Amino acid sequence: MAIKQWMGLFLAGSSLASALPSSKVAARTTDAATEFVDDLVADLTAAYNDHQTRAPQCAQESTLVVDTGYAKYRGHYDSASALNHWKGIRYSQAPTGSLRWQPPRFPALAPSAPVTDADAFGSTCYQHTPSLGGGLAFPGAPGSEDCLFLNVVAPANATKLPVMVWIHGGGYGYGDGSSQDLTQLINDNGKTFIGVSFNYRLGAFGYLASQEVKNNGVVNAGHLDQALALAWVKLHICKFGGDPLKITIAGQSAGAGSVMHHALAVNGGLGSLLFDKGLAQSPYLPYQPNFNDAIPTSKYYAFSAAAGCPSSGSVFSCLVGKSAADLELASLSVTASSTQGAWGFWPVTDGVYIQNRPTAQLTAKMVNGNKLLVGYNAQEGQIFVPGPEVIETQADLLAWMALWFPNLTSAQLNSILAINPNSALSSASGPRFETDGLNTGGFNAINTSPAGVGQRQRGSNIYAEATFACPAYWLADAYSSNPGKSSWLYQFSVPFAYHGADINAAFGPSTPNLPSDITLAFRKAWGNFIVGGNPSIANTIANGASSASPSAYHPASNWPVWDQNAPQFVNFNTTGGTLALFENPLAGTFPQYEGPGIKNAISVQNANSWEAFRGDRCAFYKNLGPFMPN
């Protein structure tokens, strides 16, 4: 099996390019995920070799019509963004009927297909909110099972530009490829790269797992959707003016967790076949069980029962025969019964695409791609932790921790409390403000936050570090002192820096606490990394136009490469402005600074000593990895 024309027609013999007939399911000698990965590697290797041999120009057609071999899509020029857009491009056959919980497949060839106007986003995947506690969760935007579409945004007359592929977040249960508008990021970087976004299967449709699912299909179907979308970009982006050898995969939260998993895919054996660089914004790493462990298996049968199938035994064929609406309600039901702030389904260790626990593989530095930019927010945990009506005492906190870390023993949970000591500063009447990260006055993330006090604040920092901040450290470590690889790390601290706050800084829209100086600096760091492989920003950008000395030397102009033995990072923050209160429906009321007078306060900091030695706590959480497991 090979691809004989770069960016051309897919061979009918490629199992990535054709539907998987039921007879093949019965006849296969390896599982479906193994076949998918084998085909993926073979196709991309052939395509890479062909590209190296032919060195195509990779320029857009003036008509903006792109022929994928199975469809022809006409893009359009958007005068508001001054960019060319293609929306709703199908990259896979609909994963419905017999293709439910099967690997995604490129659409069947159709050389004579008519031209379709790519001027509307494709259907979103079925999705719903996380658990709101008390058995509540709600459906999201109207969705469909036929939802595997992608979108391309490119400068006019693009020729061999770098490419950023955006993987949306949402806990693997929410969101879509149109969630973020990539145009401002592209324009603020001088139209120097192309943007791609896509949908992937969510909830039970994308992450249902058990031994029976693996025996009959694939677990982590949503991740295989992502892999196929990345392969599509490799095979077709040249037609949009993109360089298939300069691809950065980027994402936030679950999207950043996905970046991490693609970095770990196939034991780090993919090299740069799928991507060259990774950009992970708050990498989400909950516990990651094996596909056939007790927790995913119990969810499988709870899902089956909620869908009207048996609650034990062989149920896969029954689930395949159910309507999509029934399955969506069943997925919602499992999420509603989950811990507050969580969805019901997320990635598992599957033995094929995700072969190991992330902490173990990151420690071994077995990663794909060559460069990584990773970051997180100063207050990641607040929106995931219940209010003081739920967490008031240490016993309340331990009970909540047992839900989020269900595999840890009582002794292990108490050891987490020991490295996050309670103090007079974190009493129920304690202070509420952003720390400076330097432990000034004894204030640090363990005991102080603008949105929580007492045991709730304690829990917030535990969740923030174990689930987002420390995975960012571990990812950066994996590319440090690793031949041919390098990484950089940042923290986004502009008050109130809750989970997802840096989305507005990267993509807009603007908010009162994010003036143009800080958003431009943040976007330039991303753009410089995507285009040139280094996030360092010019002195004038780091200082900001409102600075008294915009041209003065700034250390972010020489952003330190991450060194796990002496790690440094860039802290994006501001100073000045007017104190105001902001209401977040999940995090509550908190102070931030708005209006005139806000200036950049970007700095380079020591990652180990930051926030009263976060580096030590991250090492502690990594040692818990085998027990989490993650």
UniProtKB/TrEMBL annotation:
It comes from the Eukaryota. Belongs to the type-B carboxylesterase/lipase family. The keyword GTP-binding does not apply. Its EC number is 3.1.1.-. Keywords: Hydrolase, Signal. It holds the Pfam family COesterase. Residues 1-19 form the signal peptide. This is Carboxylic ester hydrolase.
